[in-house]
């Protein structure tokens, strides 16, 4: 009896460690998958974008209770960071923060891609089932690309702060109205706006090109990061106009969703996430 009492916890712990080791190994292996099959890049038009948006809205309408549960943390994080900018005397970072949130939007939409994929196949579509896919060979590539986007977001915030320091800084502002007044009524303020928009456009374009297809592809196929990234870049290169239009739609929608203290993202993010999945389905074709 004593041996069983001691042995069972030890055996259980050994099994858990072994399982964790296998999961970690699969996650690392998935970053550079041996499955190097590449899809055919399709040319898309406005009809495809409209269809993707329509299907995204339909997915949200059918799954809204579950998708809201999946993304509710995203606007909460945005609100907490916005409160921090006020309390820490960093009001000048509020607008870069709101503008930079779309840079990590693809990470927040991971569960939404899986929900759309499951609904398309007629499988269970609740948010718990959606996140069960984030393990094994899927987890490693998704985390790798996610960390890349987080790094780009951090770099954007550093650049935005440097632009402010070189124009309106380094003195801090006590109120948002004072910042807006100086931004729109002084030469230094307009220099900050122009430089900020230019830098923001570059960051947004980079993230759009590397993520428009890659994240949904990693959920759909065990292709690994190199294939997913190269396919996403190839799609953007073959469809520059439609990629730009999609990026504009995403940016405007996320900007509108961020205005009321990020609360609108509870609706905007799910619709865009589902729509991105359906755009991916039209962007590439896999061999039978």
Automatic annotation (TrEMBL):
Record carries keyword Transport: no
Superkingdom, natural source: Bacteria
UniProt cross-references to Pfam families, sorted A to Z: DUF2189
Keywords: Membrane, Transmembrane, Transmembrane helix
Transmembrane regions: 67-87, 93-113, 142-168, 188-215, 244-272
Name used for this protein in its record: DUF2189 domain-containing protein
